[in-house]
Design brief:
Length: about 400
């Protein structure tokens, strides 16, 4: 075989999301009728006008050196702008040396994990989980340990404690959560912080907490997204502007190291190194300059809230069991009859494409990504109701 056995195996277990997305393309081409595609979290909302204005201004800037190499960590002015926004939000003394600009949140996660993990180290994550986490951990010699969550999809602190071993190096969480849309509560974050503080002392090494937060500004019914920075010292946030500015194709994000972390300067230096050696080198220069002035700008949250309400109210009225999302643009109902793979196949016959919970490590559920046109939701709702018959 030309490729490695490991990669061959990984390909076989690769994302159900992409498989369903590819199926949607095939079905659109068959001419057999409309396709209701809820498979991929690809924002349907265009970037805000402030983005376009800033983009045109940056493109028109003829200052010398604007397209040359830069420091691996990104432009200092951009990092200062990100740090200032975080300090305003959280009241912690972030500086430019707390922030590294990255090629999206995926690039940031790999940069952080490569800097932290030794071979055999364990990365704990609550279920359900974003499937790429397992591949990212493996990239850097780590092993992903998946821990069941509570029925409301909040992390189960006792279950996480039971999963911690001497090899545990990282807790990796995601809030607002993909695939459930749940926002982890301040109380649960505080309890996790207490646990990690205690277990780090018992084990004699720091357990780092990484939070993957590309949806942190897409929240509903709550004033702000509780932050791990307020719960635990040795914490690192990774994020991107894919969702809050509607820029998934631009691959622009950052990682932020808590100012309270042990030896943050060493962490910063290690991640500057891994950002380069992984081949990212630095985040796209043009996009760094664009987002520098957009740290307080987001897409229209009401656009997604309205879609969430339409889906949640309709599905619960039909009889689906579902936890109401507080953020992101996903909803994660229980599959009627309990067999998510069978249900997803039945919906596919109706030309409705959703993703089985099995793909997120949680059989018995299915994910709807509602970042789609209203006509897709409205056309699919009678078919969801019909599927319960």
């Amino acid at each position: 075989m030309a490729i490695s056995r490991k990669i061959s195996d990984f390909i076989g277990r690769a994302s159900f999301i992409r498989k369903m997305f590819e199926e949607a393309a095939r079905m659109r081409a068959d001419g057999q009728g409309p396709v209701y595609d809820f498979s991929l979290g690809n924002p349907d909302l265009e970037p805000p006008e402030a983005f376009r204005e800033r983009l045109f201004a940056v493109v028109g800037d003829k200052s010398p050196g604007t397209h040359k190499y830069m420091a691996n960590v990104g432009y200092e002015s951009t990092r200062r702008a990100v740090a200032a926004a975080l300090e305003r939000e959280l009241g912690l003394p972030f500086t430019a040396d707390s922030v590294i600009m990255t090629v999206g949140a995926g690039g940031a996660l790999n940069t952080v994990l490569k800097a932290l993990l030794d071979d055999g180290d364990e990365v704990i994550t609550p279920l359900p989980f974003f499937v790429e986490y397992g591949f990212y951990a493996d990239n850097h010699g780590g092993a992903l340990v998946k821990v069941p969550s509570r029925d409301d999809f909040q992390p189960d602190v006792e279950a996480i404690e039971a999963a911690i071993t001497p090899q545990t190096k990282v807790l990796l969480t995601n809030s607002p959560h993909n695939p459930t849309g749940v926002v982890y509560s301040a109380e649960v974050l505080a309890a996790l912080g207490d646990l990690l503080r205690r277990k780090s002392e018992e084990l004699g090494h720091t357990i780092y907490w990484i939070s993957d937060e590309p949806y942190r500004k897409l929240i509903y019914d709550i004033d702000r997204c509780p932050s791990l920075f307020e719960a635990y010292e040795s914490s690192i946030m990774v994020t991107s502007h894919s969702k809050d500015l509607g820029l998934p194709g631009e691959r622009i994000g950052y990682l932020a190291i808590s100012p309270k972390a042990d030896d943050p300067a060493t962490l910063f230096g290690a991640m500057a190194f891994t950002n380069r050696t992984l081949g990212f080198v630095n985040a796209p220069a043009l996009m760094q300059r664009v987002v520098e002035d957009l740290q307080e700008v987001t897409v229209d949250i009401e656009w997604y809230r309205r879609k969430r309400d339409l889906l949640y109210d309709s599905l619960t009225r039909f009889g689906y069991e579902v936890t109401k999302p507080e953020g992101a643009f996903y909803i994660f109902p229980k599959a009627p009859g309990g067999d998510d793979m069978s249900f997803v196949a039945r919906m596919q016959e109706k030309r409705v494409l959703v993703v089985p919970g099995t793909g997120f490590g949680s059989p018995g559920y299915f994910r709807i990504a509602y970042c789609v046109d209203d006509s897709v939701i409205e056309g699919a709702l009678p078919l969801f109701e019909e599927a319960l018959g």
